[in-house]
Design brief:
alpha+beta; globular; homodimer; 30% strand; 5 helices; ten-stranded mixed β-sheet
Chain lengths: 268, 268
């Protein structure tokens, strides 16, 4: 009888055409399925909690698999990481109940979107932040972000071409945070190792976090595009509610680029 | 009369064949000189404080230039960063006294070498850390690192083929630090934006820092190779002094890979 396992996975989405296996493109799902092939002998299907788009990263993507091999989880984790390319890592492997499906069982997902406001982007962060040359108003953005908390029709933030049954979604948290480097140690944003000394940093890292049971296509990136326009004073704070209530995609701002977005965690 | 300027520069060395301009390879010096060309009309020579090897990063490399253009420093900084590839950033441009040469005027340089001990390397750090699968003994490494402080003949840690007049160098600091993620915010090593949640981290980031007036070829990487062998108990702590005093390259361990090394800062 195959065992059911829960995999927690991190990846740098830069060089992937997204999560989902495709005929010819490099994808995360295909990379993990290919790494499992020599272990189980047959193709193992890896079911991800969320199908991240091309360029989107994950810090805590979750996937489920059914495995015939009786290999110990700790050994499997080492074997997978020894085979996988360095831009995908399996962080943890846990036993899951029979029938566990990472996609359908997911209760909540949290995304984070990273912005670098003003100044100069440290080279080590260039793949993970959207650089906004202006100084963003964090207070205005946070006020607008809070408007989205609750259950709403998010049509205004849905990519065209979506064919879901309902565009109503529940948002549990929606907030802006400013990330501060570790001034105590004089270290930069990458804990002293690889980024830039604090004294040399210009501009700052701003993070948008949103948690919900489910998201429409490009919903987070469309929200971020609108928040950034509010932060750089192209839109008034009050416009967030007007855009939301309009249910009109044309009212929201342009979609933020994929490389600032990270699937941060999935709750079950 | 040309002005003399001091540039502070950060780069991700992964995709560069080092600092120094070469006929065909992509180098940091050539990238900056090429970006200056349209501004000054003629080739401007960029003199770096240290010629980092292929794959080595910089958080605070310093370079000097002489510029005829009267462009304001702040505008020059923006123009350069708009032209340069995203893996090189000019962090600051300051006026320097006539005759300032970033190489000859440098008083001290600090390098950091980043190790990931045990566990799984977060994908966002993979270009910047050397992964050691074992759990390293930080106490033993720090004790051995301290042996190097002072003025010594560092022949044992010099790459073969060096032709310097003296192999005596002064080391001001030589120590190991463990980097701790921000447990207070639950964020990972990359300040919450792009790495891995703290709860998901396994293994840890260990940083070796060394400051001195000058270094022999591959000296830092050869020291790190020996420190890592002490940390994984292949060599006794006391061997560091024995290797140093032997002045014999064959006694030191293998050279640590370039991608863990960062030129952290240069003092004048």
């Amino acid at each position: 009888v195959p065992r059911t396992l829960k995999l927690t996975i991190a990846y740098d989405g830069t060089d992937f055409a997204g999560w989902q296996r495709q005929a010819t493109e490099r994808t995360v799902q295909a990379a993990i399925e290919d790494a499992l092939l020599p272990i189980d002998g047959e193709r193992v299907i890896v079911t991800g909690a969320g199908r991240t788009d091309a360029g989107v990263h994950a810090a805590g993507q979750v996937a489920s698999i059914r495995l015939r091999s009786s290999i110990a989880n700790e050994i499997l984790l080492r074997a997978l990481n020894a085979t996988l390319p360095a831009d995908v890592r399996v962080l943890a492997i846990d036993d899951a109940p029979e029938g566990f499906n990472a996609q359908f069982a997911a209760k909540r997902k949290t995304y984070r979107y990273s912005l670098w406001s003003d100044g100069v982007v440290p080279p080590a962060l260039r793949r993970y932040v959207w650089h906004i040359p202006q100084r963003l108003s964090v207070a205005a953005m946070d006020e607008a972000a809070a408007v989205l908390i609750g259950t709403h029709d998010f049509s205004a933030f849905q990519a065209s071409g979506g064919d879901v049954q309902t565009t109503v979604r529940g948002v549990l948290t929606s907030r802006i945070e400013t990330m501060t480097p570790n001034a105590a140690t004089g270290d930069g944003l990458l804990a002293g190792a690889v980024a830039v000394p604090v004294a040399m940093l210009s501009g700052r890292l701003i993070c948008y976090e949103i948690t919900g049971a489910g998201f429409l296509r490009h919903m987070v990136r469309n929200i971020v595009g609108t928040l950034v326009d509010i932060g750089r004073d192209r839109l008034a704070v009050g416009e967030m509610r007007a855009v939301l209530e309009s249910r009109d995609r044309a009212r929201a701002s342009a979609t933020a680029p994929s490389h600032g977005l990270t699937l941060w965690s999935v709750d079950y």
